[in-house]
Design brief:
2 copies of one chain form a homodimer.
Chain A (H helix, E strand, L loop, with lengths): L15 H8 L3 H9 L7 H14 L5 H8 L4 E6 L5 H15 L4 E6 L4 H13 L4 E4 L5 H7 L6 E3 L10 E5 L1 H14 L6 E6 L8 H11 L8 E4 L3 H12 L7 E4 L2 H13 L9 E6 L2 H5 L5 E4 L2 H13 L7 E4 L2 E4 L15 E3 L20
Parallel strand pairs in A: 1-2, 1-3, 3-4, 4-5, 5-11, 6-7, 6-8, 8-9, 9-10
Antiparallel strand pairs in A: 10-12, 12-13
Chain B binds a DNA duplex (16 and 16 nucleotides) through helix 2 and helix 4.
Amino acid sequence: MSDASGLPAKTRPPTRADVARYAGVSTAVVSYVVNDGPRRVAPQTAARVRAAIEILKYRPNVNARALKKGSTEMLGVVLPDITNPFFAEYAHALEVASVAHGYVLVMATSDGNEAQEGQILNDLAKRQVDGLIISTVLPPSGFHAVALPGRPTVLINCSTPFAGYVAIGPDAREGARLLVDHLITVHRHQSVALIMGESSEPVPEPRERGWSDAFQAYDLPPGPIVRASFSRHGGYEAAARLLNWKTRPSAIFAASDQLCTGALKAIREAGLRCPDDIAVVSFDGTSESEYCWPPLTVARQPIEAMAEAALSAVLNPSSTAAYQRFDTEIVIRESCGCSGRHPGQGPQVVEFDRGSTPVSKTVAEARAPQ
Amino acid sequence: MSDASGLPAKTRPPTRADVARYAGVSTAVVSYVVNDGPRRVAPQTAARVRAAIEILKYRPNVNARALKKGSTEMLGVVLPDITNPFFAEYAHALEVASVAHGYVLVMATSDGNEAQEGQILNDLAKRQVDGLIISTVLPPSGFHAVALPGRPTVLINCSTPFAGYVAIGPDAREGARLLVDHLITVHRHQSVALIMGESSEPVPEPRERGWSDAFQAYDLPPGPIVRASFSRHGGYEAAARLLNWKTRPSAIFAASDQLCTGALKAIREAGLRCPDDIAVVSFDGTSESEYCWPPLTVARQPIEAMAEAALSAVLNPSSTAAYQRFDTEIVIRESCGCSGRHPGQGPQVVEFDRGSTPVSKTVAEARAPQ
DNA sequence: TTGAAAGCGCTAACAA
DNA sequence: TTGTTAGCGCTTTCAA
């Protein structure tokens, strides 16, 4: 029973037609006042409409509008694992950046699974998201096959350009190099093991290259590489294996904070102390790296800046460089063997000249693997 | 130039009409094969349609369908802070549960801000999400004011029923009680400080009540309460304050893992050892609690089970109890003072009889606050 | 300044 | 078994 008042009696949410009827205008006028255009509306008419909106508690149906306009104002973001603090922080930064533009995020997790990533992409396409921000687990060829044609797509967390897409990522090679260089020059390590995630890539990861760059600069052979699944547990297992070897390295570079906290646990369980018995550094610089024990010396990724860049890239696909690389920041804490900071002071951040090559090729007082 | 082939030349994604034209059928038939109903289609016709879909790379526009059907197959989830591992794990569990039902999650973060939560809810309403899953930062009265009428809404992370809504949460009071009881009976602590988030509630939080329940059972006065912002830094500051007091407690119960890891940092910086100088237990049981140092003794929330319950509650609002409480699981690790588990074994999980009252009222060898 | 009406892509009742 | 068509809620051109 809808009566003459124009108030719908049903529980169905009010539509623009209800508002028009209530305010005694046409639906076009309602649209004009809701969108503040494209036609002008007489002030008192507008007021009537606004009152009707208020009374009826009318909320425009964004999906219907999307159908008409071709823009959903939704962005899809797919990450390998929201449970990883690095991605959680990234997700948050993306959300902050996107609300500023009136976009909403549809988030999905690939769980590191290629097939799942493909399904998600397909589903997101059907939902007409206006753009995609993805940390893909696929290689370029595989990604091409499932990517959405016609929707701006930016790949994040890419340490290297990604053929055919606009991509963003940290300068992982240089960050890794700096970190390992610190271990070599300041703490006199001669062998630094690398704990990495498994990679389907045939070509070495930038972190791996940065790690070996550092050794090459001193004509030192790099340490061993151990591969693990990208999780705390993976880091734990990798380190446990490492520590069982006859000559264990005196330091570890973990490719992510998660891997590193896992490694730390293995180190403790082996009865070893960090950094005294074995030093550790990692890549990412999430909040957890600051609060764990010992606090981690890391190459910190500028997550907010990258998230903003990713957002402006999806929103202005035309005016975007194919690849943007962001410098990491080396944050010296205790896990490398540097002494703890004085309580109350901020972390010690070391700025390096980007292009500098090490001054001395001699590493004195070298620590031997033990 | 769209030619006789029916292949659209434009970059505009193909619509059902394109498929119909290409397959030489009506749009209805396309709809029938896409949805596998509600009318039957001749096998070879269906094959033709499927071929056309394949060729044209047609993907049904979910929003248009939603407009027609009134269901977007999107669920809104709003959490205070995706950066908190507890909520990140919750988000992941919710996603796993929802993909199983063909739903997609629109995630938003309130940042603990009431006004922001209201805006998010409003925006989600305009987007016609089919249901809401919220960990609200609002009190019941405030929530009522901004809640979406007409959309199934379930409140998660509620330790107590929430007037007018279906809610889900852990048995925080009992979990807290058990944890503190362990500290009192097994480790002989007489004073356990409580680090809590700020709360706008006039009535004490269940964790606080469980904490004081434990003391009451032995006619002991509870320890001090310190309030902090819900973050690692908050826990850090709270503990730092606590440790500065003339008589510091011998143990701390932190209301969340985040608070606890922050407290741990403060303890270390004060030159104290955990658990030797000060024991610590916390609530949540995220992965981080297992990997930090020392590993945390916690009341673990059954996140997966709660997430599934939340999902089935939004999806079947009618057949759902107003409030579902989930038992936590006490996981004994090292931060309480219990010895480390033997490497290779799982954590030590202690099962308590739910209703048991402590046997002895005498606490021998009590540790005095120091 | 306002209104009528077409149409966004889809579903499903109804007709054939 | 298939086609025609109205209409979901909205925007916007065009005419009044």
